Amino acid sequence: MVWWIASGSPARIEQSxxxxxxxxxxxxxxxxxxEARAAWAMMWLQWHPRWLLVFGNVEDPADLRPYIGTAxxxxxxxxxxxxxxxxxxxxxxxxxxDPAEASKLLCRYAFGxxxxxxxxxxxxxxxxxxLGQLPLALEQAGAYLAQNPAIGIDRYRRRLIGExxxxxxxxxxxxxxxxxxxxxxxxxxxxxxxxxxxxYTLAWLAPDDIPVELMAxxxxxxxxxxxxxxxxxxYCMVSLTRNTVSVHRLVQAVIWNQLPPDGTASADRPxxxxxxxx
Length: 278
Hints:
The protein is mostly helical. The chain has eleven helices and six strands.
């Protein structure tokens, strides 16, 4: 048994464990409380060996103390935190991709299953280097190129270089994503302003597993909302399931920095959402 646990807070961890109980014993869990389902899931883990829990995006390592070393299973945690982990935990720092793998990843998104020409591979290597071999940046850049094949890698790269000085201050990954984000949102704004409004609204919600129904006030028509989410998914700006949408925290941070302090909007930059902000 392998189970992914959203770990941004203790409440999210409890909800993910409750969802595990719902998957394992739906007849009972469907009418049980979240607390009861989470407790049952922990008991199930005690009774059964050979399972793996993946705690994603851990904000506070202390939140994992009740789950570390539980029975005969395994735990993996991903986090931006490099300190505060228990001494019993083995930590591994993850770097960006190496240049060769970064170029391959970019080409896979940009060209699908078609092998790139030698010149395209050289251009992809240069673009991957400009993007710092960041997987999220490579994914989004490749998705943009796949949707806009007439632009080409070299032309897209020149556009990004032109955006370098316009990117907001911040850590290097944030500046890199800001450059890509600016190009993608500029293209989307010309095609569908609602899609951009949806993305800005998502920036002000918890990033993981946002119920699609919560986004209903953003659009007058549910079909338009789903179409906008689909476009964002194609551009790798969000991740979609049938009923939920998730957005990367780094994308959210870039959007926050793009808005002025008062949250005012312009024709191509919606302001902070009102009805959903609470």
